[in-house]
Amino acid sequence: MSWLSGWLKEIIMVVLLATFVDLILPSRSMERYVKLVLSLLILLTLLSPLIKLLTEATDLKLAGAFNRINQQSGAAGPSLRQIMNQADQMKSRQQQQSLEWAAKEVAAQMKEQVQKESGKRAASVKVVLGMQEGREAGGSGGQPYIKAVTVVLQPEEKPSSKQDQPEGSEPSGDIGIEPVKPVQVEVDMNEDNHSDSGNAPAKTAGTAIDDDSGEQAKAIKRMLENNWGIEQESIVVQTGPSENRKL
Amino acid sequence: MEIIQVVGLGIIATILILVVKEQKPMFAFLLAAATGVMIFMFLMGKIGTVISELERMARSSGVEMIYLKTILKIIGIAYIAEFGAQVVRDAGQENIASKIELAGKMLIMVLAVPIIGIIIETVLKLLPS
């Protein structure tokens, strides 16, 4: 019997509310419209046991319908989708920055290793990092991998005494040695850039490697492959002239 | 005795408007609009107490809150539309006032749409398919 008393209470309350609203309505011009909605509400209350019998959760459905109407009018500021889009943009920007940073770190380490293993001075090491395809949208799930490595070796005629000099510190007083060029790092996450960066080392590889430094280049490639797990075709070793340094 | 404040404000505003109206009809209108807004704002606080009491009653008697929300929305739309229409009508723009009222009516009708949908759905389910 409790549902009956609840139902009656509800009916009485809604009718009271409707009367109240009718009283406090400011003018007669809206009266018919307001009365229509109020009578619909009363009808809904009267039908509510039936509705509950046939369909579940009337109030949820009604609330959903009202929310849909409100969203269509778009008066509630930025919608959830816009906020999510902004979050995605911020996430991708952050990812790109961290990739850039990681590429710089990897390049510095490779440079050190090349110097240590081969005794040659690497003028610049360029590392292109890429995210593994497919899981890019997942953000944290994507695994970064090394897409391409370009090692530019200094020409032979450099004085060997300067090899011990750390790379970061610039030779202040010496005239003959040009300061260390900044490491050029580009992070490409797009597909077209991927193919682009794949072509560029292949194009320059044939021209840049001299005959005598071929062995050394191979050694460096092997060393990098062993240390970093990079495939050899994505490593390019160049010797010499500074105009080749910039790809 | 807030009614005295409201009535006093209204009377003072009326006198001022009557004085100013001959020289500057524009100021008279602005004064009227400002007075209307002030009284409206004053009433807003009072309406708040009424609404909270209504909410309490509805909660205790088990009326679904979505009904109460709908009713309150209706009241709000009716009041705001009426107020705006009156202000515009004071300025002599009867056309715009009627448009504002039309908008209020339409918005109230929009509130009826989900209710009608649910009722129709129920009726259709009652009928043998």
Automatic annotation (TrEMBL), chain A:
The transmembrane residues are 6-26, 33-51
Q: Please list the coiled coil stretches.
A: none
Q: Where is the composition biased (Basic and acidic residues)?
A: 155-165
Q: Which keywords does this Swiss-Prot/TrEMBL entry list?
A: Membrane, Transmembrane, Transmembrane helix
- What segment(s) does the record annotate as region Disordered? 155-215
* InterPro entries recorded: Spore_III_AF
- Output this protein's name: Stage III sporulation protein AF
> Mind giving the lineage of the organism this protein is from?
Bacteria, Bacillati, Bacillota, Bacilli, Bacillales
UniProtKB/TrEMBL annotation, chain B:
List the keywords (alphabetical). Answer: Membrane, Transmembrane, Transmembrane helix
Give TM segment ranges: 26-45, 66-86, 106-127
Keyword Transmembrane helix attributed: yes
Which InterPro entries does UniProt cross-reference here? Spore_III_AC/AD, Spore_III_AD
Name of the protein described by the UniProt record: Stage III sporulation protein AD
